[in-house]
Amino acid sequence: MLETLEKAINKSTADFIETRLVESNSTRINIRNDEINLTTSGYLIEFGVRVLVKGSWGFASANDPTELSNCIKSAEKLARTSAKHSIEAKLAEAPVSIEHINVKVKKDPRDISLEDKANRCLELSKRGFNQEKVQAADLIYMDSQSNWYYLNSEGTKLEYTPTASFFMFNAFVKDQQLMSFSDQQGGKYGFELLDNKEFFVDNVCEDALLLLHSKLPPKGKTQVIIDPEMAGTLAHEAVGHALEADTIINKNSIVNRIGQKIGSRIVNITDDPTIPKEFGSYPFDSEGTPGLKTVLVENGRVKNFLQSRETAFKTDKQVTGNARSQGPSEFPLVRMSNTFFERGDQSFEELLEGVNGVYVRGFKGGVVDTDTGFFQFACPHGNIIKDGELTEPLRDITILGNIIETLRHVNAIGNDLQTGFPGMCGKAGQGVPVGGGGPHIRIKEVLIG
C-alpha cells in the first residue's frame, strides 16, 4: 500500500503533500435488557490528501483507492485557486520517520465470531438487568482493527496497526423515582476487554441503587475534593482546550502566554499519547509527527501549548504531535490525547483531614468557555464531608467556576494517580478518542449548584 501511495505523490508538483489511508474492520453491539437491539460488522477504507501550494492548503478525500490520483489533482487545484485569498501557512520542522508499528492484543476481535461477541454481551447485560430494582439496562460494545498508512513528500513513511475496544453499561433503577448510572472502559485492547467484567456491571448497579438514597447537594461555595475521573475532566475540559495552540492564536483562550500563572504551585498537568493501552494513545499524529509527552502546566505556570506543525511555526515553538483528525477524510486539528494532573504527595485520608465540604465523584457532562474561563460540570454522585469523614451520599452535583481561579485554589493533591477514563472529544464537528485522569484533588473553594 505504501508503494502505491508513494508513486502517486511523487507525481505531485505541490510544495508539500501528504496522504493518509485507513482500512478498518469494526463491530458494534447494542443490547437493551436481555435483547440485542443492534449488531453491525463491517469493513471501511478511506483516504485523504493534503497539499500546500504557495502557502495555501488544498484537501480532498475519497473511499476508493483508484481515485488517489484524481484526489491529488483536486487538492492541488483547490490550493492554487485559493492561494491569493488565504492566510499563508507554513510548517515547522518535524522528524522524518520510516516505521511499521504493529500493536498486538491478547484476543484479536477478528478471531471472535459476531455470535460469540453478542453472547458475551448478553451475559453481562442479563446479569445487570436481573439485579435488585433494576428496571432496564443498556450495554454498548465496540471494537475495531485498523491499518493506518501515512506518507509525505519529506520522506516520512508510516504504517500502524492499532486495535481498540470500548464497553459501556448503563443501569436504570426505580424505587419512588427513576435513577440511572453508567460507566465505561476502553483502550487499545482486543476482546479481552470483556474478561472479568461481572464486577464492573455489579458496581454500576450498586452505584445506581445508591442514587435512590442520595440527596441533592447544598448550594454555595464550599471546600471540595474531586476524584480522579473529575480531575481528568478538569484537566481536559478546563485546561487542555485552553492550551490548544489554534485556540491561543485565534485569541479564544483565557490563557495567552507561556509562563502565565494559572494555578497554585502544586498544579502540574500533562498531555501524553505514549501511555500504553490508553484510549487516547497513538505513536504518530495525523501529520506523521511522533506523539510526545508534553508538560502543559508546571508548578502552576503554563509550560507548553499543544501544537500542530502549522501552529508550531506561527508560535515559534516545538511541534508536540497533537494534530489529529477523526479520520483521513477530515482536516487535522490541534487536539489532546491523554490529559491528566500529575500525582501529589498526600494520601486520600490526609486530603480529608479537617475538611467540611463536598466529595465529588464521576462526570456526566459539562460546558467550558475557553475565552472567559468559565466552566460548569455535572457529576453523578458524591458525599458530604463532615469533620474529615465521608457522610451522607449526594447526587446530581454541579460544580461551577473559572479555570484560573479554581486552579489557584488547589491546596492539596493526592498520591493516587489514576488514568484510563475513556471519552470522545468533539471539536469543529470531529470526534477523536481521548483519555484522562489524575489523583484526588482538594480545592479550597468551589461553587456548588
What fraction, in percent, of the residue positions are helical? 10-25%
Low-confidence stretches: none
Classification by helices and strands: alpha+beta
Radius of gyration: 23 Å
Number of helices: 9
**Ends: how far apart?**
55 Å
Main beta-sheet annotation: 8 strands, mixed
Strand composition percent: 35-45%
Total count of domains: 2
Q: What's the total count of β strands? A: 24
Mean pLDDT: 95
Shape: globular
Features:
single chain; 449 residues; alpha+beta; 7-stranded mixed β-sheet
How are the SSEs placed, and which strands pair?
Layout: H1 2-9, E1 16-32, E2 35-53, E3 56-62, H2 68-82, E4 98-102, H3 114-129, E5 134-152, E6 157-161, E7 163-174, E8 178-187, H4 198-212, E9 220-226, H5 228-240, H6 245-249, E10 269-271, E11 294-298, E12 301-302, H7 309-315, E13 323-324, E14 333-334, E15 338-341, H8 348-352, E16 357-361, E17 365-369, E18 374-386, E19 389-402, H9 403-408, E20 410-413, E21 418-419, E22 423-427, E23 430-438, E24 441-448
Parallel strand pairs: 4-6, 9-16, 15-23
Antiparallel strand pairs: 1-2, 1-5, 2-3, 5-6, 5-7, 7-8, 9-24, 10-11, 10-15, 11-12, 13-14, 16-18, 17-18, 18-19, 19-24, 20-24, 21-23, 22-23
Helix pairs in contact: 3-4
